Amino acid sequence: MKYLMTAAVAALGLASPALADMDAAKAVIEKYSQLPTFDAPGEPFDAKACMADKKMFVIPLTNANPFNAAISQGFVDAAAMVGFELRDWETQMDPAGWIQGINTAVAEGFDLIDMQGGLPPEFLVPQITEAKAAGVKVTATHNWDATTQQTPEFMDGAANTDYVTIGQIIAAWSIVQTGGKVNALVLGPDEITPTAPLRDAILGYLKDNCPDCTTKYINVPVNDWATQGQPAVQNALLADPSINYVLPVYDSMSQFIVPAIQIAGSSAKIVSYNGTPFVLDMMRDGDIVEMNVGESLGWVGMAGADANMRLLCGLDPVTKLNTPAFIFTDENVETAGNPATFNDGYGDVHTAGFKALWGLE
């Protein structure tokens, strides 16, 4: 019967319907379901000797976000291991607080300022320019995509993340789970620097690899998640009950999306990124959060510190973090802890890896 249908289509001069690339999507899922391994981002160096008279200042997007706080803790741990001074600045996603941090770092003679975890440096160009004029290097960690976004020229460097691959993992998962019949609602806050590559990777992968997949994108600014997130999702699900996936680019949005799915009576599942502990707990204890792409944030902080130390020590620059993405599902979420943490479940190869890389053992 399949042969006869194919022959009939050919006889009529019609193109065969395109099918989703299931094999490619399955390969993506298989690759990132493996426990992370440590690949050194550069050559070994004597970090203790290099950093003996240097100090680092970290300004996160906001300490109120556990994601940023966990990355900062990775910086703190790296500084303790190597033995240099590091200050983690307190800020609540407030541009005035970011500016005060830059001014404090300059006034107190810090050698480098790192803008961490999505803080948009383009809003702070005058202050960055003044800091650089004072001899302070200014970098960023986990801010831009490593392949699709350029580090601005006003920055001294950046250790960037492979956001494109993360977005492709999310899209590939939904393709496999639906047999190439995805109808996805994608959400993100456009004002956050990494949103664009994540959003575009999800939408682009589905468009290029799944001709029968459909998507709708809604921009929900971070400060409006609590007030606009739930009604936006709820209204979309009621308007189109065939939506089978809700794909927020950041998993913390899930706390507002889950109630929307429940109230709408939808069977849609959530797949997202960040490995935020409370979302992993939701996965373990419920059935709406289906998959989460995470990365060890302690590893991210150590990798950012590594890139910054290399810059301060005049070594070859590192522009891409060596932190692998890792898939959590209900089959392995218990490894993330109960309650979950930002670092459990990934193994600890990075700690020994960085110690060896920095000449500490």
Automatic annotation (TrEMBL):
It comes from the Bacteria. It is found in: Cell envelope. One of its GO terms (cellular component) is cell envelope. Transmembrane segments: none annotated. Residues 1-20 form the signal peptide. Keywords: Signal. Its main location: other. Coiled coil: none annotated. Belongs to the bacterial solute-binding protein 2 family. PANTHER family: ABC TRANSPORTER SUGAR-BINDING PROTEIN, D-ALLOSE-BINDING PERIPLASMIC PROTEIN-RELATED. This is Ribose transport system substrate-binding protein.
